[in-house]
Design brief:
This protein is 69% helix and 0% strand. It is built from three helices and no strands. It has helices spanning 4-7, 14-32, 40-60.
Length: 64
């Protein structure tokens, strides 16, 4: 079993830290955009894609 200190190593990765900042920026930007209802799904997909990057990096380091 891997201890919690080893589990947090993905947080030390610069790529994970930057992807988290990117996801925050995308979420903030999407919140400021006024659009018609027909574009709602597009913004939902942008949010999902941006937030999946840091999650996939963490998963790749063995964190689920």
């Amino acid at each position: 079993m891997v201890n919690s200190k080893e589990n947090s190593r993905y947080k030390d990765l610069l790529v994970w830290q930057r992807s988290l900042c990117f996801a925050d920026q995308v979420l903030d930007l999407v919140d400021t955009i006024e659009t018609s209802r027909k574009h709602y799904r597009l913004f939902e997909q942008l949010e999902a894609a941006a937030t999946s990057v840091p999650m996939n990096i963490a998963e790749g380091k063995g964190i689920t």
